[in-house]
């Protein structure tokens, strides 16, 4: 099967983690020429073929490196356009890109950051089969006012393509119960919500999981260390699941390899109660495109062409985009 040609939906992709190493390298070359960076070449810091980032090495890669390189308007525009182009070339027809609003001192406010990305998206949407919307992320390390600021920005720019709010960041830090008022305001503003859920065993306590479920998320991501009673509740509510195979395997977030991934359990031979949206998470770091994720699923879980099409089309029901977009996707995506 040609997994690249298969029209696909991507619902869990972090902007800064989706930038290819080649693109980071190009940004670095330009900055180096102008004497604007002391950082090392991305192709040395993140060598081609290195994907074994774990939860200890992964998060500092952003705070200590990628944010240091993508630190002005030009690099934000260049990298965002490159990410959109990469998803389009991989056969993605609908993308919900997510990013944490980031002020860049002496360059951009958080609002500039968000509107710059929205302009890139709007220009891309005008000329491409790929249609993209934006989700704003709250980082677990944020405080409540910072989280509320993300909701305010999302509400203000909703008509320009923001569809929801995400809770992400290092799963071993932060206190999720802090964010109850932020999720309440997101819901009352009519924004959809998704939450990184049960990513790390050490912080996945029943208390944290039930607190997250009390925020009534429309979708949840990763969904790894989940006790049976929580699984039953997820199934009862039919929450959409964003599952990221390669990320979980490379970062050793699961035990075993591809064939041991909990995709098998949730998909359940096509009988699972919840929609599974296969996603890449951070293709720039873990190196597996969405078409490759579909190929891995076919290979390790024995899905044939018909089932692969069902899996891909299934995600239509859990996008945060509008009914009109769902109709476009129903017409575009393969039935068999
Ligand atoms: C294992 N997978 C993951 N789990 C949790 N949070 C993740 C993540 N992958 C990425 N992020 C979050 O997204 C930020 C980078 O993109 P943006 O600067 O927002 O575009 C990271 O700093 C982290 O907070």
TrEMBL record:
Per the record, the GO terms for biological process are: adenosine catabolic process; inosine biosynthetic process; nucleotide metabolic process
Pfam families in the cross-refs:
A_deaminase
What cofactor is this protein dependent on? Zn(2+)
How is this protein organized at the quaternary level? Answer: Monomer.
Which stretches make up the Adenosine deaminase domain? Answer: 7-330
Catalysed reactions listed for this entry:
N(6)-methyl-AMP + H2O + H(+) = IMP + methylamine
Could you state a single Gene Ontology molecular function term?
metal ion binding
Keyword Metal-binding belongs to the record:
yes
Looking up InterPro entries in the UniProt record yields: A_deaminase_dom, Ado/ade_deaminase, Metal_Hydrolase
Q: Which family does it belong to?
A: Belongs to the metallo-dependent hydrolases superfamily. Adenosine and AMP deaminases family.
Q: What is this protein called?
A: Metallo-dependent hydrolase
Task: Report keywords, A-Z.
Answer: Hydrolase, Metal-binding, Nucleotide metabolism, Zinc
The species this protein was found in: Mollisia scopiformis
């Amino acid at each position: 099967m040609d997994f690249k040609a298969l029209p696909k939906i991507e619902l869990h992709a972090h902007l800064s983690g989706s930038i290819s190493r080649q693109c980071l390298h190009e940004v670095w070359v330009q900055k180096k020429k102008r004497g604007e960076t002391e950082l090392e070449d991305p192709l040395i810091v993140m060598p081609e073929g290195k994907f074994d980032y774990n939860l200890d090495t992964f998060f500092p890669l952003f705070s200590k490196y990628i944010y240091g390189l993508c630190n002005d308007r030009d690099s934000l525009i260049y990298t965002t356009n490159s990410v959109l182009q990469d998803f389009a070339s991989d056969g993605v027809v609908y993308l919900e890109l997510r990013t944490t609003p980031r002020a860049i001192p002496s360059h951009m406010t958080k609002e500039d950051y968000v509107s710059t990305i929205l302009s890139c998206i709007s220009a891309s949407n005008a000329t491409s089969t790929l249609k993209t919307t934006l989700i704003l992320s709250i980082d677990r390390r944020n405080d409540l006012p910072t989280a509320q600021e993300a909701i305010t920005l999302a509400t203000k720019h909703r008509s320009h393509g923001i569809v929801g709010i995400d809770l992400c960041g290092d799963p071993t830090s932060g206190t999720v119960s802090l964010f109850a008022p932020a999720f309440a305001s997101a819901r009352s503003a009519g924004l959809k919500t998704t939450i990184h859920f049960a990513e790390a065993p050490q912080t996945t306590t029943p208390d944290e999981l039930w607190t997250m479920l009390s925020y009534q998320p429309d979708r949840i991501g990763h969904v790894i260390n989940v006790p049976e009673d929580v699984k039953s509740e997820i199934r009862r509510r039919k929450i959409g699941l964003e599952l990221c195979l390669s990320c979980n395997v490379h970062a050793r977030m699961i035990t075993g390899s591809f064939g041991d991934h909990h995709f098998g359990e949730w998909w359940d031979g096509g009988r699972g109660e919840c929609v599974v949206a296969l996603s890449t998470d951070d293709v720039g770091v873990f190196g597996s495109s969405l078409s490759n994720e579909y190929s891995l699923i076919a290979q390790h879980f024995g899905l044939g062409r018909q089932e692969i099409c069902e899996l891909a089309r299934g995600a239509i029901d859990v996008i945060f985009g509008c009914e009109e977009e769902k109709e476009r996707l129903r017409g575009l995506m393969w039935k068999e």
